[in-house]
Amino acid sequence: MDIIFHHPTFDTEYWLNRLQQALPGARVRQWKQGDQQPADYALVWQPPVEMLSGRKGLKGVFALGAGVDAILSKLQAHPDMLPDGVPLFRLEDTGMGLQMQEYAVSQVLHWFRRFDDYQAQKLQGKWQPLNDYRREDFTIGILGAGVLGGKVAESLVAWGFPVRCWSRSKKDFPGVVSFAGSEELGSFLSGTRVLINLLPNTPQTVGIINRQLLDQLADESYVINLARGVHLVEADLLSALDSGKLKGAMLDVFSKEPLPEESPLWGHPRVAMTPHIAAVTRPDEAIAYIAKTITQLEKGEAVSGMVSLQHGY
Ligand SMILES: NC(=O)C1=CN([C@@H]2O[C@H](COP(=O)(O)OP(=O)(O)OC[C@H]3O[C@@H](n4cnc5c(N)ncnc54)[C@H](OP(=O)(O)O)[C@@H]3O)[C@@H](O)[C@H]2O)C=CC1
Ligand SMILES: O=C(O)C(=O)CO
Question: How far is CA 110 from CA 104, 107, 115, 187, 201, in A?
Fold first, then answer.
């Protein structure tokens, strides 16, 4: 079995060695321009079109991350990039769930314990205890209740917050109120104090966090965007912050990355940000998952993690 690998920034040598150890019967190689030699599986991130297009004998492509929007948009421009019938897989959790939990819990607690207000007071040299917030006024709403949204929901339930989620299909997560479909989006938003975004980037979700949506949240609410920058209309977020409707935002992803230096988000006192690091691919866990999936595929067994090209995630 032959496996080709391409990632623009990962330590390729490390990945090749560890993949070889995990799949001792396979021949694993870095794909280089011009390489049209046979391959059974391709492991990719931002693949050059020629790496995949027209390839015969390919049995599966693995995206080396959770989101497949970049691959799918390339596929739209070059439909022959993924040969007909070749399944596309993505990473399911592989260590990203815990990282998302850490991020979401730490930020929710930061706001819940009013550390943002105390920081502002500190800058004014003000010593003033404030009223505590109550958990019943701090409903967390998670957009997207898939692998990562589900993990984040679980961790916030454990901290005693009222938690609700919104997805295409209904969920049955312990302690979480589930809303599904566009007809239930309004009820989901009503009363939500902290909105956490973990949706995939699809034509249906682009621009979903806009003025109309933000207006439906509780007053003095907060937004955490952990998914993709295109979900959020940045100008609408800034207006909602300036009107007082929103109290704070924590952003990991942006419509343009790196965030251009002229963006007003940099200087806004109630916007905090990180440079798209909410959850990164952990090589060892990802390799174990890919090796297990390939082994199952080779035995003709059912696997999970297959992307629906129809749904775009
Ligand atoms: N910032 C970062 O560092 C990272 C960001 N990400 C982002 O997080 C995203 C989520 O990852 P993951 O949890 O693994 O993805 P999943 O595919 O497991 O979950 C997606 C969720 O979104 C729901 N959904 C999709 N479309 C709609 C829609 N139109 N209306 C309502 N709900 C919808 C799905 O509903 P249903 O369950 O019914 O199918 C599902 O619950 C990734 O696509 C990626 O963009 C991922 C990793 C790191
Ligand atoms: O895995 C993903 O989709 C990411 O965004 C990683 O940064």
Answer: 10, 5, 5, 26, 27
- Whether omega for the bond prior to residue 258 falls within 30 degrees of 0, making it cis, is yes
Q: Is 276 a catalytic residue?
A: yes
Task: Judge contact between 192 and 164, C-beta under 8 A.
Answer: yes
Task: Please indicate whether residue 231 is annotated as part of the active site.
Answer: no
User: Which of 167, 204, 209, 252 to mutate to test ligand 1, by most ligand atoms within 8 A of the CB atom?
Assistant: 167
Calpha distance 122→45 (Å, rounded): 44
Distance, CA of 59 to CA of 208 (rounded, Å): 35
Q: How far is the CA of 165 from the centre of ligand 2 (A)?
A: 21
Print pLDDT tens along the chain (313 aa): 999 999 999 999 999 999 999 999 999 999 999 999 999 999 999 999 999 998 999 999 999 999 999 999 999 999 999 988 999 999 999 999 999 999 999 999 999 999 999 999 999 999 999 999 999 999 999 999 999 999 999 999 999 999 999 999 999 999 999 999 999 999 999 999 999 999 999 999 999 999 999 999 999 999 999 999 999 999 999 999 999 999 999 999 999 999 999 999 999 999 999 999 999 999 999 999 999 999 999 999 999 999 999 999 9
Determine the atom of ligand 2 nearest the C-alpha atom of 277. 7
Q: ipTM value of the model?
A: 0.99
Which residues face 271 on adjacent strands? 249
| d(C-alpha 85, C-alpha 104), whole Å | 37
User: For residues 96 and 117, what is the distance between their CA atoms, to the nearest angstrom?
Assistant: 30
Q: Whose CA is nearest to atom 47 of ligand 1?
A: 66
